[in-house]
Amino acid sequence: MGNKSSKKKTDQKKAQDYPDPKVYMWPEEGDWASVKEHSEDVLVVFPISAACTPVMMLAKECGLPVDFCGINYQTDLNGKVALALNPIHSAPFLLVFENGDPQPAYAINDSLAIINYLAVKYANMIPDHVLPVEAGPRGKVMEKTQFINGVLYRSTAYQYIYPLIGLMTECQYDISKRDFAMEIVDKWCADSGSAFLSGKDKPGYADFALAAIHGTNCWTRDESFNVAIKWERDLLPKYPNMKKCIDALLEYPAIKEVRNVTIGDPQVTNCPSTETWTNFVAKQAMGNEMPADGRMFKFDAEKIPHPNWLLAPGMEETRKLFDMPIKSQLDKAEEEEKKELAELEAADHVNEDSKANLAGLLAKKHAHHEQHDKAEKEEKEELAELEAADHVNEDSKANLAGLLAKKHAHHEQHDKDEKEEKKELAELEAADHVNEDSKANLAELLAKKHVS
Description:
Helix content: 55-70%
Strand order of the largest sheet: 1-3-2-4-5
Number of helices: 19
CATH architecture of the largest domain: Up-down Bundle
Order of helices and strands: HEEHEHEEHHHHHHHHHHHEHEHHHH
CATH class of the largest domain: Mainly Alpha
CATH topology of the largest domain: Glutathione S-transferase Yfyf (Class Pi), Chain A, domain 2
């Protein structure tokens, strides 16, 4: 992996001694012989990744002769060549070419490991404000960097961003550190003595890490995302010193340049710039609401796959075993409550219709009784006149008897009609028995739901 003499010669070089770094996509089938001109060091990245962009910012700020190579997350990263070089299966990773060989000699995975390599190889090109030479100041920079890349990253982006792209990341242990992490970084910003964490007039590597985490946490900026927590809306305003530092970082030239690096066609390569992704692509590529409050996980499997692999083509069935979104107990209770409400409303569907039917039937009954009373009044008047004119002869008696029989039959029919009406009303009222109770139940249930 190189010898001391070549390393010493490299350390003496300056930026002008190297060819200008380039930006390109991972070669087809990983054939690096097809890439005619490239640097000795090629940084393989996703331009939107919070792990990748700090190294890109350092390279830009220091003018390092490091190429940026975009790679397709779902295909090339899982390809035979990439996995042989980078079995850890994540980005960034640095390809190191030696002695003019067209194929990489080896790869280095992880941003901090890459930074250590670059800091040694290009020591004379990295200014003190980025990575101090002295052990104490260097240690403090790396302390901040590690904390931001670890605790702050996992307690924010891992919780509110990555689940929306299908990654299994929710974790109570991590999210419980969110406010603690925000307070720590806010105090560092307040105590730095400058606009940056570096404490100098230019940002250092810890600043690059903070700018990168901010970039990822802004992916849900668009109003189409229906999420409870948004970084810029709900979290950052509570920590004014951190916000002030981030605002200054976003205006810094090297950081602005990296945030606008697009590699290839972003619709094809999955390598858009941070700005393009946040403002245009994210709302189309990500889910707009959290899929769950947690995950069921098959922890007793014979072999547990890497979570990133579950997003690769052909892993759909395996994903079902290891990526099972679950709802919280609150969500379950709410679903049961909705079901109960639906059943109550279904049982109560007779309310309005039965009321209308009842009103119509009562109106009809009232009209019928009015007609009956009128007929009965006319009968009485007719009988009175008949009795007055009756000189007690047999014919009039017969007429009177016939009329009384007719009246008796009419009353029997009326009694029968009234009995049937009462039966029909009783059935209607029985069907309508849920009216008042169900209304009361519904009102009580809705009141409970409002309180909870």
